C-alpha cells in the first residue's frame, strides 16, 4: 500500500520559538503536512516560496521588516497570481480578521489552538481537491490595500470551490440548519456551509438586517413592510418573509431613516 503524498508547506514567522511550536503541532495534529521551508522576513519568504512552490503557506501578518501582505503582493507581481493556499497566523487584528472572513480565507489566532488547527487542516485538505483559481486572495489584497470598512465583494466557499460575488447583488440570506442559502437579484441561489449568524456578523454593517431567526435581508431590496398577519416584509423578488416579534421595533426604526 502506497503512502499518500505529503502536503508541502512553508512556515513564515519572525519568532523562531513560534515556528518551532507550529512545526511540533503540525507533526502532532497534521502529520500529512511536510514543512519544506521556513522564513522569518519578507525577503527570505519570497525566496523560499518561489523555490519550493508549496501547496500551503502558514503566514504571520506582522513581521520584523514588513507584513505577510507584502509577501503576497510581491509574489503576485513576480508570478502573476498566487497559486497556493494561505493560512494567516495573527494576533487580534480586527480589521484583518474581517477582511479574511470576507475573502473566505483561513486564519489562526495566537496562541494557536490545536482544535482550531485541526479544523483549518481539514478545510485545506478539502480545498486542495477542488479546482481553485485563488481569486479570493486577490480580493483580500484589494481590501487590505483600500483599508476601507465598506467591502464591495465577498468570497463564498461552496462544495465546488470559492466564488466571488458583489455584495449589492445579494438579495437575502436564509438559514437552513447549520447552512446558509444565499439568494441573488438574478434569481440564482447557493448553499454555504456556515451559519446565518456568521453572515449576520459580516454583513450587518453592509446594509443587511436580521429580521428573523431564519432571515437576513438586504434593506436595499426591501419593497414593503406589512403589519397584518403577525408582520412580514415583501422583498423585490416577491418573497414574503416573517418578522420576529423582537425585531419589529428595530425594523420600524430603520424604515424611518430610509
UniProtKB/TrEMBL annotation:
The modification 4-aspartylphosphate is found at residue 60. PROSITE patterns: HTH_LYTTR, RESPONSE_REGULATORY. One of its GO terms (molecular function) is phosphorelay response regulator activity. The keyword Cell membrane does not apply. Gene3D superfamilies: 3.40.50.2300, LytTr DNA-binding domain. Residues 8-125 form the Response regulatory domain. It comes from Planktosalinus lacus. Residues 154-257 form the HTH LytTR-type domain. This is DNA-binding response regulator. Keywords: DNA-binding, Phosphoprotein. Pfam families: LytTR, Response_reg.
Amino acid at each position: 500500500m502506497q503512502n499518500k503524498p505529503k502536503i508541502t508547506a512553508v512556515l513564515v514567522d519572525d519568532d523562531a520559538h513560534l515556528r518551532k511550536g507550529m512545526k511540533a503541532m503540525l507533526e502532532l495534529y497534521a502529520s500529512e503536512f511536510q514543512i519544506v521551508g521556513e522564513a522569518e522576513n519578507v525577503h527570505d519568504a519570497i525566496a523560499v516560496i518561489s523555490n519550493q512552490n508549496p501547496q500551503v503557506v502558514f503566514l504571520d501578518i506582522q513581521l520584523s521588516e514588513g507584513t505577510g501582505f507584502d509577501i503576497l503582493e510581491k509574489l503576485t507581481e513576480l508570478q502573476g497570481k498566487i497559486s497556493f493556499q494561505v493560512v494567516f497566523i495573527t494576533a487580534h487584528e480586527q480589521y484583518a480578521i474581517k477582511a479574511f472572513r470576507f475573502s473566505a480565507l483561513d486564519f489562526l489566532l495566537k496562541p494557536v489552538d490545536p482544535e482550531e488547527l485541526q479544523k483549518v487542516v481539514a478545510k485545506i485538505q478539502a480545498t486542495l481537491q477542488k479546482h481553485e483559481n485563488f481569486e479570493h486572495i486577490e480580493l483580500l489584497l484589494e481590501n487590505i490595500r483600500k483599508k476601507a470598512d465598506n467591502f464591495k465583494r465577498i468570497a463564498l466557499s461552496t462544495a465546488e470551490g470559492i466564488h466571488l460575488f458583489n455584495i449589492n447583488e445579494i438579495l437575502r440570506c436564509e438559514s437552513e440548519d447549520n447552512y446558509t442559502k444565499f439568494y441573488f437579484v438574478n434569481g440564482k441561489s447557493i448553499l454555504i456551509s456556515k451559519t446565518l449568524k456568521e453572515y449576520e456578523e459580516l454583513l450587518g454593517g453592509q446594509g443587511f438586517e436580521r429580521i428573523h431567526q431564519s432571515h437576513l435581508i438586504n434593506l436595499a431590496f426591501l419593497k414593503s413592510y406589512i403589519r397584518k398577519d403577525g408582520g412580514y416584509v415583501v422583498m423585490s423578488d416577491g418573497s414574503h418573509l416573517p418578522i420576529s416579534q423582537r425585531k419589529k421595533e428595530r425594523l420600524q426604526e430603520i424604515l424611518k431613516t430610509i
